[in-house]
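Let's study a protein:

===
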Amino acid sequence: MKRLSLVFTLLTMVSMMAMAQSNKTFVLENGKLGPLFVGQRSAAIPKSAPGLYDKRTYKKQTMEDMDGEWTEEYYQFFKGGKKVFRCYINNKKISSFVLEVGSSYIKTPEGFYVGYSGRELFQKKRMEWNTYYEGEVFASSNNFTYYLRSDDIIGNDFPTKLSEIKQSAKISKIVYIVSEE
């Protein structure tokens, strides 16, 4: 009986530790996210990082638009089978992070995350908003670019005042890239 009790206690502890790890919050700060960082060689990217991601895939593709062709190279990271973020690769090193829907456990140093209220972001951070991608508006501050869906903007191409952002608007993507100065 003591043995069963001990086994049950150990299983409970392991389960609680796994739950705590899966609910962990990460901060993308100074180009670092968990074991990943801008400038890190892509060959050194771990296959998984407890609580941050459990799988990664590599993709290299040629893109084309009216300005010409270019190659995109990145790792897509998954948690629980869902896409959560990407790391873009340039010269075999991480050059930027893109936080996607499903990554609300990853925050900026100021506490913003994908899914955060677009109206609150607008109120808390005085940034100039713009658009050049169909379907998105964006604003940048301190190496972070915050995106909202164009459908969440009322009356203009991009918001200039709070009333032009729908109550339901949420940050749809956050990009971290080190500025070239």
